[in-house]
Amino acid sequence: MKIEIIKERIKKRVLRDHPKAYVDHDSNGFKIMTGDKVIAEDYFLPNTYDLDTAWEYAALACKTTQNFNRSHPMRMDLSNVEGKLNRINKRKNRGRYGKKK
Questions:
Q1: Is position 99 within any domain?
Q2: Which domain holds residue 68?
């Protein structure tokens, strides 16, 4: 019972990032694909003959991509930092350190 729940969570995680993901099987084993691209190919994850392991590899690739995009230095341009600081300063001005009426 618990294993099936974990499998469904893994599958749901992949389908959230790649809604049109599907399973492809060839002589090399199972692959989770979206369009013409194998999801786990960017991270050189091995081919597998187990369907559940293929979903786990795809979920790992999605998770790694998300973490990489979150912390990549090229993603943090000046406009992002400026907007973030503006939001913080607005909150400070509305809070207890803001202007008193």
A1: no
A2: 2-94
